[in-house]
Amino acid sequence: MEAQSEQPQALKGIRIVELPCLDRMPILAASMAAKAFADLGAEVVKVEPPRVGAPERHEGPFKAEIPDPETGGLHLYLNTNKLGVTLDLRSKKGRELLLRLLESADIVLNPNMPALNDQLGLGWPILTARFPKLVVVSLTSFGTDSPYRDARGGNLVTTHMSGVGYETPINQVTDPPNQPPLKPAGRQADYLAGFTAAAAAMCALFHRKRTGAGQHVDASLWLAMVSMIRPSIGVYSHDTPDAPYGVRIRTRDKIGVPWVYPCQDGWVSFSPLTDKFWRGTKTIMGNPQWAESEMFATLTSRAANHDAIEALLIEWLSSQKKHDVFVKAQAEHVPCFPVNTPREVADNPHYKARGFFVDHQHPVAGEVRMPGAPCKFSRTPWRIVRGAPRLGEHNRKIFVERLGLSESELQALQSDGVI
Amino acid sequence: MGQLPFEGIRVADFGWIFAIPHATAWLGSLGAEVVRVESTLAPDIVRFLGGTDGMVGINRSGMYNSINFSRRGIVLNLAHPEAREVALRLVAKSDIATENFTVGNMKKFGLSYDELRAVKPDIIMLSGTPLGQTGPYANTVGFGPTTQAFAGMCHLTGYPDSFPCGIGGTWPDFAVGVAMVFFMLAALHYRDASGEGQYLDLSMAETVTAMLPEAMMDYFLNWREQGPIGNRAESMAPHGVFPSRGDDRWIAIAIATEEEFGALCEVLGVPVLATDRRFTRLAQRLANVEALEAEIAARTKTFDRDELVARLREHGIAAGPVYGPVDLMQDSAFLASGMLVELEHGESGRRIVPGLPAGFSAMKPDYRPAPTIGQDTDEVLSGLLGFSADEIAMMREKKILM
Question: Which of A190, A215, A226 to mutate to test the interface with B (most CBs of B within 10 A)?
Answer without folding.
Answer: A226
